[in-house]
Every structure is written in C-alpha cells, then in structure tokens.
Amino acid sequence: MAEERRQKLCSVILPTESMKAIAESVGVGSLQEESCLALSEEVSYRIKEIAQDALKFMHHGKRRKLTTGDIDHALKLKNVEPLYGFQSQEFIPFRFASGGGRELHFYEEKEVDLSDIINTPLPRVPLDVSLKVPKEQQKTDSTEPLKAVKPGQEEEGSIQTKGQGASSAEVKGKEKMRMKPRSTHELSVEQQLYYKEITEACVGSCEAKRAEALQSIATDPGLYQMLPRFSTFISEGVRVNVVQNNLALLIYLMRMVKALMDNPTLYLEKYLHELIPAVVTCIVSKQLCLRPDVDNHWALRDFAARLMAQSCKTFSTTTNNIQSRITKTFTKALLDDKTQWTTRYGCIAGLAELGHDVIKTLIIPRLSVEGARIKAVMDGPVVSNIDKIGADHVQSLLLKHCACVVAKTRPLPDMVDQYKADYGYLGTMLCSHVVKARAQAAFQAQTVNRTTLTITQPRPTLSMSQSGLSASSGSRTPNIIKVPSSLTLMSTRPGTPTQPSPPATKYIVMATSAGAASTQQVITLSSSQSGSSVTSTVPSNPTSLQPLVKLESGTTGAVSGSRPLQKYIVVSLPSSSSSLENKGSGVLPSSTSPISMESAVKLERSESPAANIQSPH
Amino acid sequence: MTPLLSAPGEKMAAVQDAPMELDSEKETKPEILSDGTSNLSGNTASGTLSSPPLTAGGAPKQEDQQTLIAVLQFLRRNKLTESVDILRREACLEDQEDSQTLDGSGGGKGDGDGGDANSLLSRVSIASAAAPQSTLTPIPVKNDQPDVSVVLSAYSQQGDPSLYQVYYTGLKNFIESVLDCHRAELSQLFYPLFVHMYLELVYNNHETKAKAFFEKFSGDQECYYQDDLQILCGLTKKEHLKGNEALLDFRTSRFVLRISRDSYQLLKRHLQERHNNQIWNIIQEHLYIDIFDGMPRSKSQIDSMSGSFAGETRREVNKAKVFYGLLKEPEIEVPLDDEDDEAENEEGKPKKKKTKKDSMGSKSKKQDPNAPQQNRIPLPELKDSDKLDKIMYMKESTKRIRLGPENLPSICFYSFLNAYQGLTAVDFTDDSSLLAGGFADSTVRVWSATPKKLRKVKSAAELNLIDKESDDVLERIMDEKTASESKNLYGHSGPVYGVSFSPDRNYLLSSSEDGTVRLWSLQTFTCLVGYKGHNYPVWDTHFSPFGYYFVSGGHDRVARLWATDHYQPLRIFAGHLADVTCTRFHPNSNYVVTGSTDRTIRLWDVLNGNCVRFFTGHKGPIHSLAFSPNGKFLASGSTDGRVLLWDIGHGLMIGELKGHTDTIYALKFSRDGEILASGSMDNTVRLWDSMKAFDDMETDDFTAATGHIPLPDNSQELLLGMYHSKSTPVTHLHFTRRNLLLAAGAYNSQ
Fold it and tell me: Domains along chain A?
C-alpha cells in the first residue's frame, strides 16, 4: 500500500512576508520576525481547519465545488463572523502587484457609486426551480403496471448496459441527447481535381466549358460527396457577388443550382438551408448588377424564381413548409410600400411561378394597387429612368401572369370597362391580354387531337453570353433560334429593353419543340400578345429540326458551332398547351418512330405543369 | 447511550489478557489499573471536553454520568452515605448505575469497579494538581470540568523523543521481516502508532522532530488514512491540539485492532526482547488489541474492515441481540374484492421473505422470532386514514412488479431545473404522490408528483362557515384558490440538508444548517414546530416508519430521537467521533442507524439508547444508508464510492459493491428487497442484485467467532445495470409501491 503513494503530504505555511504585509495593512508597523513566524503558523493552521470544515458543507450541499458560502458556514461554526461581500464574478478575484522587492496579491475593491447601482436596470429575474418529469413515465407511475408500458425497451437497455455500461435506459426518458458521431466527408484526389475543374468552369469565362461542366453536374452520378462543397460554393458565391453586383457570376451560380437540381442522383434537401437563401437573394435583391438601367437582371430574377418554384415543388413538406415560408417572405415584401421596383418584380415573379392558385389569391387582388403604383410612375412627373424601367417590367410581368389566370377564372364577356373597374389602371391592358389568352385557349382546344411531340431535353436553362447579336447564328449547322432577351419579347415599349448595350446584352435561350417553324410560331404567338418585334428573330432558322432554341452570342458562336450538341441549351417548354399543339403539328411529319413520339408526348404531358411554370412565356 | 455502558464488559475481557503486562503501572499506583480504567477515563474526558456542542446544548451528558458513577463508588467505599444519596438524587443516576452493575456482574465486580473509580479519580486529581504520577492519595473532589490536559497528560511523560524514529523504524523492520501471513495483521499497527507518536512529539513541543517524523513515515500509511494525515500534517503545535476535536477523539478513544493470537504473540515477544517499552506503552495505553484464535487474516480482509477513525469494531460490541424482524401488521378488516383477495393469496405463497404484505394477507402468520415485542416501544395508534392508506398499500402491492436480474425496474428521473446547484435534499412520500426538495437558499419546496394539485386548508374564519356534517367535509375544507403544483416553505435560515415526509403525508421534516429541525404541516403549508437542540448544522433527519418519532443527526456528533409532540429530544445517541451525517429508522422503528464522518456506522436501540451495532469498513464519510425491507440487512454508501452490505443480526459485513466513482448519496432497496439501487454524484444510477449478495452469504458458514468472513469480490456479477444521466447527480432514489424506481437530482448545466 505504501508504495502506491500519491503526492507527498507536506504542511504548507504562509510566508512570513504575508504576515508583515497584512500587519502593515492594519497599521502595525514593525512586527518582529518571531511574531511573524508564530502568526503565520497559527494562521495557516486555522485556515486549514476552516477549509476542512468548509469541505463538509460542500459534501452535504452535494456539490463538487467549494463556494464562498461554504467558507462562511464553516466560519459560523467557529463563531466567527462570515466574510461579507466576497461574492465575485471571477474565479480568482485577486490582483497581483509587485514592486519594491515585494509581491502582493490583493483583492480589488472599487469604489462604487450608489446612484449607479440604483439607476442600472434590474437584471433579469433568474428562472425559478422547476421539476421536469418525463411525461410518459409519469403516466406509468399513476396507472398501469410498469411492464406493460415498455416491455422490450427497458430490458434491452439494461441488459446491454450491463456489458457496456454506456447507453442508458434513462436516456430515453429525460436527457435524450445522443450525439451523432461527426462524420468527415473526405474527397479523393480525383474528386478534388474534378471539383476544382467544375467550379472553375462554371464561373469561368469560357462558355463551352461551362456548358460541359453544367452538363456534368446535371448528369453525373456519384456527386453526392461533393454536394456539401457545391452547396457552400454556391451560397458563398452568391453572398459575395451580390455585394459586388456581379450579375454574370450570379447567373452562373444559378445555373449551377439548376444543374444540381436536375441531377437525379442528388437529393438536395439537406442543403436547402444554403441553396434557398442564395436563390431567394437572386430573386429579390435590390440590386444585382452594376447598371440597373441597362443590365438585364430581370432575366436572372425570372430564372431564379423558376428555380425557387421548382424546389418548392420538390422539397416542400409539411415539416419544413418551404413553400408557405417562401410565399410569406415574398408577400411581406410585396405588401411593403417602400419596396423597390426590383424587389417588387422579384416578389411577383417568385409568387407567380408558384402556380395559378398563388397568383389568384395573392397577386390578382393586388392588381389595382400595383396598377396605381405603376401609373404614378408612368404618368407622374419625371422620375428616374430606373424607376420607370422597373415599373415597366413589373407591369408586363403582372399582365403576363395574370392574363391566363384571369382568362380561366373570369366569366365572359371581357368588357374593358368592367376590367378597369375591377383592376384599375391595368384593367385595359389586362383585358386585351385576356382576350388573347382566351383566343389561344380556344385554338388549342380545336387542335387538341393532333398532339404529338418529341422533345428530347425538356430542360429550362439560362444561358448568357457577353456580347454579339444573333447574326452569327446563321453560320452554324444546327439551327438555333436567337431571341433577344425574353423581356424584349414581353415589353410593349420597344425602346428601353431592347436597347443594345453591347457588353451587357444577355440572351435567354429557350427550348421549344423540334419543329423550328412551329417553334417560331409559338414564340411569335406568345410575343404577339405583347406586340413586340420578336418576329424578326424568328426566320433565322426556318428549317430547324433541332428541338432546342438557343441564343448565342456572336463571339462564342464559332466555338459553339464546332460542337453543336453541347451548345444546345434547352431553355424551357412552351407554357400553354396551345403552343404545344402547334409544335406537335409541325413535328409530326418529321418524327420517325410513332412509339417514341408517343412516349415523348407522355413525357411532355406529365411534365407540363412544371413546364407551365418554368416557361418564361 | 454510548458504548460506554458496555465498557465493563470489555474491560473484563481485556483484563484476561492484560494482567501480566501491567507491572510497570502497578508500582506507581495503589490500585489495580486495568485497561478498562484508562479507557474509561479517556472516554469520560472526551465526553465532556471534546464535544462542546453537547455541553452547550444542555443535553444530558452521558459521559459526565460516568464520572459521577465513579465518584459515587468512591464515596460509598468511604462510607459517605449521605453524600452518596444527595449526589444520586441530584444526578438522577439510579438507572444507569443499576444497569451498569448488572452488566458488570461476575467475579471481582466490586473490586473492578472500585479500581475504576479510584484510578479515574487519581487521574483527574493528578491532572488538576499538575503533578503527574506523583500523587498517590486520591482526593475526593467532584471535578466537573477537567482540563484538556487530563486528556493529553498521558503524553507528557514519555521517553526520549529523538529515539522515536529509531523505535518506529525498528518496529517497521521487524514487521517487514515476519512471515507474510502475520505481516498484514501487524501492519495494522503502523497507523495508530504513527499517529500517537507524532502527537506525543507535538505535545511535548518537539516541533521539528515531529515534522521530520511525519515526513519520514507518513508515506508508509494506508491510502485511506489520507484525510486524517492531512489534518495531522497541519498540526504542529501543542496549542493546536487543544482545539482539535478530531484528534482529541483519536487520543481518547482507543484504536481497535483485531489480530490473531499468533501474530500477537510474535509482536509481544519481539517487543519484550528489544525492551522496546516506548512502543509497548503506546500499545497498552492507546490501542485496544482484540485477539482472536484462528488463522491470521489476509491483507484484503483487513483492508475491507479497516479505515474508520477509531480502528475496527470490537467483537463484543456487536454481540448484543438485535430484534431485526418486522412488527406484526395490525389486522385490518379489508373490504377486499374477490379478485384482490385471490391475488393476495397467490402472491403470498411464493415469497420466501416475510414482507409486510404477506403478514397482512395471512392472519395466521406467527410472530417473527426476531421481531421485537409489539409494544417494545410505544407506537402511535392507527387512525382511520392510516387504515385506508394501508388498504391502498395492499391493493397497490398486488400489482407490484416482481423484480429480479431478468426483470429490472424502469427508472423515472425527476430533474430539478434551474436549481443553480442549490438542491441539497430530496424525499418522496411512500405512495410517491409528493416530492419535497431542500435547497441551499433555505427554502423547502413541495411538489405534487401526480396531477392532483396541492391545496391549503381554508382559514379558520372560512372553516367556520362550512357544513361539518356533510360527507365531503374533507374536500370542503380545502381552499381551491390555493391549488398549485408546488408550495414553498420558508422558515429556515440556512441550507436545508435533510427532508423527510411523515408516513401519513401530513407532515414534513426538514433539517438545516441553522441548527434546527422544523416540522411542517402539509395541510396548511406552515411551520408547526422548530426543534432546537443540535445548535450546529443538522445534516439529516428521518421520520419513523410509523410516524410520531423522528431522528436527526448533525455536526455536534450526536443523533437525537424526537417525538413530534416533545420539544426536547427523547434520546441522545452519542458515540460517534465526528459529525453524524445520515440517519435512518429501522423498518420496525425500534432501531436507528447513523452514519458518520468518522467512517463508522452505528445502530442504536431506541428503547434504551444503547449502541448495539458498530460497523467499520468505509474509507470515507458515510452519506447514505438503507435498510432492506425485511429489516435484516443494511446497505451503506460513502464518499469512497463503495456500497457495503451488512448483516444486522450477525453484525457482519457481507458484501462490498464497487463501481461508483464518486460519493453515493442515495441508496434504496426495491419493495421486496430483490434489487438495491444506488445513486451517486458521478451521475449514474446502478442496480445491484442484492438477493444474490444476501443468498450467497447465507449459504456460507458464519465464522462469527472471528467476526469476519471472506468477502467475495463479485461486484461485477452483482451489478445488473448502470444508467447515466447527462449531467445530473442523483440525490435521491425511491421505489414506488409497484416497484418503479424514481430518481431525483438537480441538473447541473456546467
């Protein structure tokens, strides 16, 4: 026993200097060395005694820490006044000072201004003691015999614990805090290289590489290990680029999101907390680009809104309630009078993409209010150009989305006056839109039987390029429709949006059906509602059998021409079924296999609701 | 009463061994000086001197009476009959003296007693005259307040201090050279010798020598004496000795060693050969060597029993008969349903143990031979409400889950949140309907553990208005407005260290640092009585299982027995050498068990106040005690993290349950005694197979003669389950009547 000895016991005694210092502090100037020694021994002994008594109080207080209160109680046992006012926030409240060859530890007592104490607000009252009992067990106690309540569980737990002593039956009752072991997701060297390449390509300047990279993200299986990194990349990227108003990069990042969502092997639910804020930022941010008056950030908003709608559709559950939370966010911003036009546009776009029901309940009732607001900008005194553009965009957006809904819900006839009464400033325009929508619907109804369609890649995507016009497209073998931005299509006023501001011109690429002619038809048809000059772009590829619509910049044209297949970026499906029919009719003769056609139609059909929402028109 | 009453018996035993060793003493003293004498004197002094709380509290001073008895005997021998009568009348000594006379029956009784008295007085007078060993004629002085020096005087005339190291080293070398089988036993000598020699050095002002001695040999001591050594090392001056109660106790109570005859002979021969009188004197003066015939004990056996402040138990101490059986349950006409009745009978058959329930179920059952007389101590009459409660209890019992190794209880943990480390005590009512917590901020809080809220009785004025004849009068007296889930009880002025519900759920006891025990009404939620007497912190209190009586124990080193309607204690159980840390009533209410900081457990007889059992073996202060439901066994838990099991009837340690890593604050047997649950500061609840521990024991032959049995080291086999809480030390454990285990503790967020 003697060998296993612990630290050596020794009697520690306070240094005599301390005695001297203490004596000085109470006004005893010269203390003899012997007295000091005697005193220090005595004091040390008494202190030890008190500490030993204090330990008893600690034990009975069922604590592991000795408190000042324990010391006070121990002093009380010896009939000594406790030390008052020794409560301290700090662990060791002593200060240290040295000088003149002496070292001192002292207790700092600051002078306290009473009025300060009186005037400081009272701290929060600490919570009262409460008793917590696991509920189901309380029941056990009062009614049923114990075994009936949890037969298997208990036994299992206890028998296991006999061996391991780790898990606990109690855990299931009170303190259910089992920590999952933290798992590390390590990437192999190849994966790291891949990740680096992909991210660089996605945000790099080479459009071809980007397309390839996006294609890879959208189709490669086995990316799940990199998913957290992609997700962080995107959310960080958006965060940084929104601040810097780097529209191009934002668009690239959104396309990455799109690609990730398209990959059937990835399940994004765990990463929505990073992705959704990023997407929403791209929808509603006040400013997304350096020159809001000329840059086409509207397209980005539309695109992001579509992404948002898609993720709502895919991931919204009763537990995470994504859709309702998003809807709430948008609505709140929409209802705010001070919201800027850009954000307002984003909110409306975001809501509109969520479906007809949302439009009906949340947007249409607001039409008159928004109309008045637009009118104020349009007809009012000269305001900034930016406001005007914003109001303009909002107006066309509202008309576009509301028309088809109104067409479906509102009974005939469409009286302009009636509309004006109901929807205010926008009533007139809305009426004409509705009329067109009805006409289209009727047309569609007639041709419904002829539906066949082959669409190979029904993926809406957003592509942008730096410069150039559609002229270059003619040189390429695959026929590509070039359309100036979708907004141009919509705009009633040809002036502002189509203004070619060379460095910032963006082109939205839209996918339509195979028949080029019919595609053109669709576009013309839809654009004709807004009476724009889109038709001019249509004839550029009259013979196209390519099921894609592509918008290409002049500079990248050569590259894309050399690798046609990768170039094609499917933008969207036509929104209305009527256009579908049109295309179908056009495609029919060219299709080779009826079976494939049928299946394609099925595909189309099944996806049509989604397509409706995703399509820009 | 203290074990002092049995001192004559011990003395007689000791005398048999002693005569030949007394030569040196005989020359200096006129009377025969036996071991018992010095023991007696030592105890006398300790009683009066070393426990100031006692004198301060004005409580009966048992030890003083001992002195008085000695004085009386002296007077009688000197034919001073008048003085005898007066003194006896004044001191009300009849009973004690008679009992002692009875105890001391046997040859040479008168001589022995006379010798006691004279030698005692001689000691006292020696001290008061400050002339040690020189006064031969005892002075008939009634010395009420002997000086501390009496106690210490024995140290004053020892030999050359410079040789102490030599002596000690010599003994050490000898012990290390003996055969292995004896070495372990003789090693027990080290610690008491070391302490006494050190104290002698200190007492005689050889400070530096004392320090050197301490430094040289303190490392040799067993690790479980660490705490004491720490106290010792701080003590370097004679003046310190005076105030240090613990060491006075050590000095005055003879350290008990248990050594086999062979080893003892070996030691004696060695010391005589070497003429090592110094050590021999210390052994004679301050140690009590309990010699037994038989095989020397092994190291582990010794270790399991040692560790207490005053050595081991003397075998004689635990010889007294203890009526550990349960009282016969009163026969209650129970309007049992048929099905209940059947269940009762079925339940009754397979039981091996006699439990309360069985005795109720079968009226023909005979009185347990080990049970005390029904009226051995007066118990309160059963009220109607008590009977109703008994019926409830029986009904519940029929639905009880039979526990076993294969069938462990569920544990329901009551966590106290936001207690800020202030929860100091918890208790449940027997039917688990109420829960009380004592807090460091002096409050006591009562919670309802059922959906039923706590209500106060209406005020007197309102009570006048209600219809006393109505059937639901008990319901009507309650004030619905006051219904709440918990009630606070304010009154103490220091941390509340113990709470205990009365069995009828009408009262609650709380003991506090402020030196009082308070009785609270759970009808009005007010304080009814404050029991003053301890004057120092009261560490624990516990209600008798039949109500009315309760016991409390505190820093003043005594446990007190109270009745709720007396403001003064009925009994004072004195004998512990340090704080009484926990107190429990035996299920038959005839005994009280106390655990102490001196690392011993004592069982006291409520009837006469005697200490009937004395258990050593713990290596730290005892913080929890629990009786098995059949009253036969006792479990104790201490700061050393071990649970020890004791057989009360035989007075033996029968098991050791190792596993906890911190103080055990809660112990509880399941309702039928199958499982022992222990809860500790280490945030775990552990379940032990107590049935197996007891059964294994009973199949063994008791070597009761030697007072020890080989302990199987089977903690791991007996451990049935261990359950961690996240950060909640377990303060209390309770089995509901259906054997669901409830645990309680304060969540500690740090």
Answer: 16-98 (1.10.20.10)
